[in-house]
UniProtKB/TrEMBL annotation:
<comment type="pathway">
    <text>Carbohydrate metabolism; tricarboxylic acid cycle; oxaloacetate from (S)-malate (quinone route): step 1/1.</text>
</comment>
<protein>
    <recommendedName>
        <fullName>Probable malate:quinone oxidoreductase</fullName>
        <ecNumber>1.1.5.4</ecNumber>
    </recommendedName>
</protein>
<keyword id="KW-0274">FAD</keyword>
<dbReference type="Pfam" id="PF06039">
    <property type="entry name" value="Mqo"/>
</dbReference>
<dbReference type="GO" id="GO:0047545">
    <property type="term" value="F:(S)-2-hydroxyglutarate dehydrogenase activity"/>
</dbReference>
<keyword id="KW-0816">Tricarboxylic acid cycle</keyword>
<dbReference type="GO" id="GO:0006099">
    <property type="term" value="P:tricarboxylic acid cycle"/>
</dbReference>
<comment type="similarity">
    <text>Belongs to the MQO family.</text>
</comment>
<dbReference type="InterPro" id="IPR006231">
    <property type="entry name" value="MQO"/>
</dbReference>
<dbReference type="InterPro" id="IPR036188">
    <property type="entry name" value="FAD/NAD-bd_sf"/>
</dbReference>
<dbReference type="GO" id="GO:0008924">
    <property type="term" value="F:L-malate dehydrogenase (quinone) activity"/>
</dbReference>
<keyword id="KW-0285">Flavoprotein</keyword>
<keyword id="KW-0560">Oxidoreductase</keyword>
Length: 500
């Protein structure tokens, strides 16, 4: 066993979309900073960011019914949808800047336009969807959204879903043509290629095993070279824990008080993938339905056209599942070892509170293929079992923490940025809305950890993200400019219609 020691400005742990985005932002803001990346697998974007491990939806709240709530007075609260749409616009502007500046190329290899649709059945749901559409279509962010409960129109929009459907069934949908399918795996790999070209030192098959803070505030990481078995020591002034499901254990090892009472609960995802080209060719949209009662928000069923490796495919799901692993390539002891004396009461409280989730997950795990087909048939009544295969997607680790609103052991469904008080360490936990909002979330990391540089960096941030610091909802002219510009740069203006 040999030992190596180095010092650098920034260490990014994990080569997923989050580290890729933060590294790229920092390289634009301070090109002279030295950055190192440690990734335990042999390539970038192999865990949740991989194209087969997530649904590839550019979450802009154009179709996800769980981002809007019906209030007791019957009105629809769209504040969450507004927030997520604004965050997605930040990613779109950043990707557009990268393409324009020739830092990444061929945007069609990571982003395509496909209509985003919400689809509901039953009178009550149709009334809800219509009301939701009326509220949303008045907002500039959702301009262009269409609603229909007319069968002929629906046959035109979603022929596969309308085939063999009872004539007396109440059904309605909304459609936004500006939706996207994003290959986050391809994007992650492109960003890491770019980082390599800017002399970022990327070490694959290097697992970060431990970390401790030096007296001067910098961090020393113990890193295992998985090829040679040697242990290396690497120090940095700033560390970002972008380990996806692996982040919680690393945060706990850092020992910062901000991470002590946090726990995690893994939820795995399973999709059904269509193997019949004739069926695949009949659907050209991402169609989101309504979650079943008691189902967690990440298991909202959707039927998605995907575009991966220049090939169109069709996926349905996700079905939730339970595996104690925190990463797809993780260990079955991940959940057990994440329970520490600091978070044990938070975890126990969550266990008692979330019995219905546990019951739901057990039911989901027990589903046979034919039972999963029955759920698919709510979308495609004539779906045949032989046309569909099961594929295992990525792991999500939902954050559990004590909150004022929810009390002890509250399960969180969003993303959490945890930072040390001196800003020398940041960790990203949770996975929703996920990769779509990477640029917004990594800007949040920068704001929290480098407040002393924000004034100096602001002009460059505005060059990359013209809407930075502004509300697009309140500035429709800027929104229009941004839409036109990002559509042109990312090649989304006309090409998408060729697929619909
Ligand atoms: C089923 C499913 C569907 C989803 N659908 C969508 C969607 O439609 N749209 C969307 O925007 N988001 C979606 N997401 C969420 C999205 O995939 C994630 O938010 C995003 O990929 C997380 O990126 P990351 O960089 O944080 O983590 P990851 O991509 O998981 O990367 C973390 C990396 O860290 C490495 N690592 C971990 N521990 C260590 C260590 N100790 N040392 C070195 N390396 C380490 C891992 O090997 C991995 O490569 C989905 C997720 C799932 C699971």
């Amino acid at each position: 066993m040999s030992s190596e020691e180095t010092k650098t400005d920034v260490i990014l742990i994990g080569a997923g979309i989050m580290s890729a985005t933060l590294g790229t932002l920092l390289k634009e803001l301070v090109p002279e900073w030295k950055i190192k990346v440690f990734e335990k697998l042999s390539n970038a974007g192999e865990e949740s960011s991989n194209e087969w491990n997530n649904a590839g939806t550019g979450h802009a709240a154009l179709c996800e019914l769980n981002y809007t709530n019906e209030q007791t007075d019957g009105s629809i609260d769209i504040s969450k949808a507004v927030k997520i749409n604004e965050q997605f616009q930040v990613s779109m502007q950043f990707w557009s800047y990268l393409v324009n500046s020739k830092l990444i190329h061929n945007p069609q290899n990571f982003i395509r336009r496909f209509p985003h649709m919400s689809m509901v059945r039953g009178e009550e749901n149709v009334t809800f969807l219509k009301k939701r559409y009326e509220t949303m279509s008045n907002n500039p962010l959702f301009k262009g959204m269409e609603f229909s409960d007319d069968r002929e129109k629906l046959v035109e929009w979603i022929p596969l879903i309308m085939q063999d459907r009872p004539l007396n069934e109440a059904i309605a949908a909304t459609k936004s043509d500006s939706g996207t399918d994003v290959n986050f795996g391809a994007l992650t790999r492109m960003l890491f290629d770019h980082l390599k070209n800017t002399n970022v030192d990327i070490k694959y098959k290097h697992s970060v095993e431990n970390m401790e803070r030096h007296n001067d505030g910098s961090w020393e990481l113990k890193v295992k070279n998985l090829d040679s078995g040697s242990v290396e020591r690497h120090s940095a002034a700033f560390v970002f824990i972008g380990g996806g499901g692996g982040s919680l254990h690393l945060l706990q090892k850092s020992g910062i008080p901000e991470g002590k009472q946090i726990g995690g609960f893994p939820v795995s995802g399973i999709f059904m993938s269509c193997n019949n080209p004739e069926v695949i060719a009949q659907h050209h949209a991402k169609v989101y339905g309504k979650a079943k009662k008691g189902a967690p928000p990440m298991s909202v069923p959707h039927l998605d056209t995907r575009y991966i490796d220049n090939k169109q495919s069709l996926l349905f799901g996700p079905f939730a599942g339970f595996s104690p692993n925190f990463l797809k390539n993780g260990s079955m002891f991940d959940l057990v070892t994440s329970v520490t004396p600091n978070n044990v009461f938070t975890m126990l409280a969550a266990g008692a509170k979330e019995m219905s989730l546990t019951k739901y997950l057990i039911q989901q795990v027990m589903l046979s293929k034919e039972q999963r087909m029955e759920e698919l048939r709510e979308f495609i009544p004539g779906a045949k079992s032989e046309d569909w295969d099961l594929v295992t997607a990525g792991q999500r680790v939902q954050v559990i923490k004590d909150t004022e609103a929810g009390g002890k052991g509250t399960l969180q469904f969003g993303t959490e940025v945890v930072t040390s008080d001196d800003g020398s360490l940041a960790a990203l936990l949770g996975a929703s809305p996920g990769a779509s909002t990477a640029a917004h979330v990594m800007l949040e990391v920068i704001q929290k950890c480098f407040p002393q540089y924000m004034k100096e960096w602001e002009p460059k941030i505005k060059e990359m993200i013209p809407s930075y610091g502004e509300s697009l909802m309140e500035n429709p002219e800027l929104l229009d400019d941004i839409h036109t510009h990002t559509s042109q740069t990312l090649g989304l203006s006309e090409r998408e219609l060729a697929f619909s």
